[in-house]
């Protein structure tokens, strides 16, 4: 199965680019920029990655992002992730970025975008990997800050396909950002939101009804609401599920307790994603392997994760057709 997973074409729809910052690059950038970090070496950083919940991770994740200062830093970060996509046979990726994590430290929105877009253009040219960018608002910050961020994005509208919502879910429900998401939709952005990761199933309902999102990030708490489950199936609303993230952040006590296969077999459109791979111990292949190891899954089910992600992606119809074709060719060859 490991070999099948390695060769399987993949599409990643849930990846925070700041969450792909490996400790080695963190050290390199800290040194390059003269930023002090409270660790002596990359191994020490890794050993600090023991999380009890989402917030315990976020504290360390925002701290790590402080080494990102220049456009070159954002380029290096993004290029490293795209190279990793090549290794894992990820053909298309939709990347979240958290502008407020940087603008709050005095780094300009333009600096972030220059670095990200340079790496993504290069990845398409040199690696043949297509991508989209999703601007995430930090839900622990206020509405005014989100509006300011939306304003800063104006000159970059052409490079950003959608807005998203991430960070601490509990205490920051979707309705807090109703007006920002309405304004973003008016400007032509698509939208997604983290919901039902640590928070209740009602956050998924509200993300759909109030924020009008196209897909849900995580969404695993949907099982608590049978009516919502029926709706997700009927409307084929996609959930970008992140297995290793969910076990590292104790959303599930073990991979065997995860509900991704149960959701798949009920007819919900679910996909496999890495979320913050540098912090959770695995990229796409590792996430697929962890699921395959914990459950009796067949090849068709693994391929269905990719097919679902292709259908739910924000790329062009022509690109979707190409991706489906590549997936079919691979499955037929096995
Ligand atoms: N930011 C980065 N990873 C996240 C996650 N899993 N949930 C919420 N916010 C995040
Ligand atoms: Zn996430």
Gross morphology is globular
What is the strand tally? 8
Helix and strand run: HEHHHHEHHEHEHEHEHEHHEHHHH
pLDDT < 50 stretches: none
Strand order of the largest sheet: 1-2-3-4-5-6-7-8
Count of structural domains: 1
Query: What top-tier CATH class fits best?
Result: Alpha Beta
Compute the number of helices.
17
Could you state the CATH homologous superfamily? Metal-dependent hydrolases
The biggest beta sheet is recorded as:
8 strands, parallel
CATH architecture: Alpha-Beta Barrel
CATH fold-level assignment: TIM Barrel
The proportion of residues forming helix, as a percent range, comes to 40-55%
* Chain oligomer state: single chain
Round the Cα radius of gyration to an integer and report it: 19 Å
How big a fraction of the residues is strand?
Answer: 5-15%
Euclidean distance between termini CA atoms: 11 Å
Please describe what this structure looks like.
It is a single chain. The chain has 334 residues and is of the alpha/beta class. It has one domain: Metal-dependent hydrolases (TIM Barrel, Alpha-Beta Barrel), CATH 3.20.20. The protein is built from 17 helices and eight strands. It has helices at 2-7, 23-33, 42-47, 54-64, 71-87, 99-103, 109-127, 143-152, 178-186, 201-209, 226-234, 243-248, 260-265, 277-280, 284-294, 299-312, 317-333, and strands at 10-16, 90-97, 130-138, 162-166, 190-195, 215-218, 238-241, 270-272. Strands 1-2-3-4-5-6-7-8 form an eight-stranded parallel sheet, sandwiched between helices. Strand 5, helix 10 and strand 6 form a beta-alpha-beta unit. The relative contact order is 0.14. The model has no long low-confidence stretch (mean pLDDT 98). Bound molecules: adenine (ADE) and zinc ion (ZN).
